[in-house]
Each structure stands twice: as structure tokens, then as C-alpha cells.
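Slide 14.
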Amino acid sequence: MPAETHRQRCLLLCKIALSLALAGAAWMPSAGAAEAAPPTDTTLLGRIHGFTDRAASLAIEAMSLMGIHYRRGGTSPEQGLDCSGLVRYVFRQAHGTELPRTSAEISQVGDHVDKNDLQPGDLVFFNTLKRAFSHVGIYLGDNKFIHAPSSGGAVRIESMDLSYWKARFNGARRINDAQQAETPAKR
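Slide 15: predicted structure.
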């Protein structure tokens, strides 16, 4: 099956699965509650809805690339992706956001996020090459992230609870839609 047909099929399946999951979560009463009460604060409801849409679009786009082979310096699904190529591609497709080329440069964009405050769509960084911020992935929630691992690998989801990732975690950033993501000025 051609790569683009595979990607389109995965994208459709991801959209359906995520839509069903979000619809179920939105209408499920909380544990011990007889009936779920609708939120009364429309500002809070708008923020939650906006976050869900943002996280959903990033997750759907990223998950549609599962199985795409790793290629050092790769920036497209057709040619292969490296970690920063994956992140850049997903943010461009999902939100039209242009990010810098390398994981180290991307680590300078957006707002710092504490590990305990991670939300789906945040970027997570790791030291995998004996230098800070040498690897990046997209946080999906539940201590899972999606990334393009290394030569011989393919885009996949992994747990940040694995000792390998725990020992190499460098930090996290949040790219907000209102922020202009630009390459840091050359010094």
C-alpha cells in the first residue's frame, strides 16, 4: 500500500477512535455521581473545549504517522522522519505552526512545563546523545509520548515510565496557538 494511502487510512481511523473516546469521556458521569452536572462556567468550558480540540488534532496527526520509518534529517512521511522532523510535521499539519529544525532549537520555543503539569500536546525532551535536548516527542497523556526513535525504528508510542526515558528526561515545553514559534535568533 502506498505511504500516503496508508497515512490517510490511519488518519481516518485515529479520528474515529479519538472522537469516540472524547465523546464517551465528555458524557460519562464522575465516579460516585448519580448524574453528571454540566459545567456552569462558560469560560472554563471554552478553555477545556479548546484544549481538547488542540490536543486531539495533534494526537490524531501524530498517530496517523505511526509506523513511518526513522530517517536522520527526515522531514516528511514519504522520505522518513527523525524526532524533530516528526514534531515539526505534526505541528505544521495540525496548526500551521512552524517550529525550528532541531530538537535543541525547539526546546527554546514556547513555555516551560513541569513534568507534573504535562498535558497532551506538550513537547517532551530527552538526553539521548550525551547532550541536553537531543531528542523530542509529543506527550499524549498517561505518561505516554509519540516519537521517531532512531535508525531502524519507526514512529511509535512509548511510556515515560520506562527506566531509559526516566533517566534521560530533560524537560517539557508547551507551544500555545497564540505564540509565534520562530527559530531563536542566531548569535
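Speaker note: Confidence is low (pLDDT under 50) at residues 16-41, 180-187.
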